[in-house]
Write a structure and sequence with these properties.
single chain; mainly alpha; de novo design (two linked rop proteins); 4 helices
């Protein structure tokens, strides 16, 4: 499917939801976590959406692939941060599971995109 803007991409829309979810979740973290877990979680969430957008804006398939890989990595990073927050007692599983599920959905969609782009590269002369 062809999109005119990254905002139209369902995977970007899902990533954008993750940003909102993470900001809401981290709002109640202790002040001492502002530059630690809170900052890391917010940065990873923003990176998921930002790298999808940047990949969309790239003209070369290999560049797109790089940014989609970065986004996939940030999705995994976010899951790790969520689990860390749970482990230390800041979050409940009920709070983090929906965000983890969205991150996993993003990873699945990016895997499909990467596979499609990789096939495109391998079929070029």
């Amino acid at each position: 499917m062809s999109y005119n803007d990254f905002i139209e991409m369902p995977v970007w829309q899902l990533a954008f939801e993750i940003v909102e979810d993470v900001y809401q979740l981290t709002e109640r973290l202790p002040k001492r976590e502002d530059y630690a877990l809170c900052g890391q979680m917010r940065k990873a969430a923003i990176s998921i959406a930002a790298n999808i957008a940047e990949g969309f804006g790239r003209n070369h398939t290999k560049d797109k692939l790089n940014f989609y890989h970065f986004s996939r990595g940030s999705s995994s990073e976010e899951i790790s941060h969520l689990l860390c927050g749970y482990k230390v007692g800041y979050f409940t599983l009920k709070e983090i599971d929906p965000i983890k599920d969205k991150c996993k959905q993003v990873i699945e969609e990016l895997n499909k995109m990467v596979k499609s782009l990789t096939l495109k590269i391998s079929s070029q002369p």
